[in-house]
Amino acid sequence: MAKVLVTGGAGYIGSHTCLELLNAGHEVVVLDNLSNSSEESLHRVQALASKTLDFVQGDIRDQKILDQIFQTHQIDAVIHFAGLKAVGESQQIPLEYFDNNIAGSISLFQAMQRARVFKLVFSSSATVYGESNISPLNEDMPTGMPTNNYGYTKLIVEQLLQKLSAADERWSIALLRYFNPVGAHKSGQIGEDPQGIPNNLMPYVTQVAVGRREKLAVFGHDYDTPDGTGVRDYIHVVDLANAHLCALNNRLDTQGCRVWNIGTGNGISVLQVKNTFEQVNGVTIPFEFVARREGDVATCFADNTRALKELGWTPKYGLEDMLADSWNWQKQNPNGYRD
Ligand code: NAD
Ligand code: UD1
Description:
Blueprint: E1 3-7, H1 12-23, E2 27-32, H2 40-49, E3 54-57, H3 63-72, E4 77-80, H4 87-92, H5 94-114, E5 119-125, H6 149-167, E6 172-178, E7 180-182, H7 201-209, E8 216-219, E9 231-232, E10 234-236, H8 237-252, E11 256-262, E12 268-269, H9 270-281, E13 287-290, E14 299-300, H10 305-311, H11 319-332
C-alpha cells in the first residue's frame, strides 16, 4: 500500500480517485486550493469510504506548503490533477493558465525532487493529439497543436515530463490522456459540479434535465459522422479513477515516462447521448441545432489497447451507466455541493 499525494483531489476526477484509493487501502493526502471545488466533496469521500484522508488547503505554486507536506508525510507517489480546465476561459486569461498549469506543475516537480519522490501520475488530455490525427487515436501518433491555451498547457507539461525523465532516470511517470470523463459515483454523493454555465456536454444535459437550463444547443449537425453531430469517447469517471490506481501500481516498480490513452474506444455522437439519456432516465431534453463550436473536431475516440494490455485496466461501465449515474448525482444535488 502506498501513501499518495493527490493534488486537486477535491475536484471532479480527484474526488473519485481519492475514494478508489481509500477503498483499495492506500493512504491519501490532498492538496487543493479549492479554486474550482468545495471541501464538501472530501467529507463525502471519507463518509463513503468510512476512512479518513488528510486535507491541506493550499496552492501547488506554494513551495513552502509543498515542502511541509513532504516533510510531514512519507509520500510514495503523487497523482497530479490540480489545474485550471475551462477551454474558453483559457483564451481570455492565458497567463492564469500558464501559471497554474505549467508553473504550478514545475513547482510541484521541484518539491518532489527535493523530497526524493519520483513517482508521478499526470492528468493529460486527448486534446494533445491536435486536429490532424484520425481516430482511433493511439499513443504512437504524433501530438499536434491543441486548438486552445488549456490544451497547450497539457502538451507543454507532457513534454517537460518526457525531458525530465530522459535526463534523470529516477523519475517514473505516467501520462494519462483522458478522453471525455462523465458520470458519477453510484451513490450520487460525489459528481461533477461546474461553476457557471457548463462548457461540456454532460453537465449541460443534466442541468437541462433538472430545469436549470432551458434547452441543449447541439453544436453542429453537418459533421462527417453517422448522424452529423460530433462523436466523442465518453468514459465513466469511476473507470477513469481506477485507471489511476492501475497506473500507480505500474509506476511503483518501473522507471521512465509512458503515455496511456484512457477511453473506452467507443465513438458516441451528441444525439446518441441525448437520446440514450432520455431513454435511460425517462426525461425529455429539449434541444436545438446551432452552429459548430470553434475548435471542435468531428470525431475523437481512443485506441485503448495499450492501457488494457499494459495496465491491466478494463473499463466496466457503458454509456447507459454513465448517463444514469450523471443524472442520479444531479437529481440528488441540483445545485452541486452548494445545497
Ligand atoms: P476540477 O476543476 O474539478 O479539479 C481540479 C482541482 O484542482 C480543483 O479542485 C481545483 O480547486 C484545484 N486546483 C486548481 N488550481 C490549483 C492550484 N494552483 N493549486 C491547488 N489546487 C488547484 O477538474 P477535473 O475535471 O477533476 O480535472 C482534473 C484534471 O484532469 C485537470 O488537470 C484537468 O485539466 C484534467 N482533465 C480533465 C478533463 C475533463 O473533461 N474533466 C479532461 C482531460 C483532462
Ligand atoms: C472539450 C474541450 C477539450 C477538453 C474536453 C474535456 C473544446 C473545443 N474542447 O472537448 O479541450 O479536453 O472538453 O474537458 O472546448 N456539445 C454540444 N453542446 C454543448 C456542449 C458540447 O453539442 O452544449 C458537443 C460538442 O460539440 C462535442 C461534444 O458535445 O461534439 C462533447 O463536447 P465537450 O463535452 O465540450 O467535450 P469535447 O468537445 O471533446
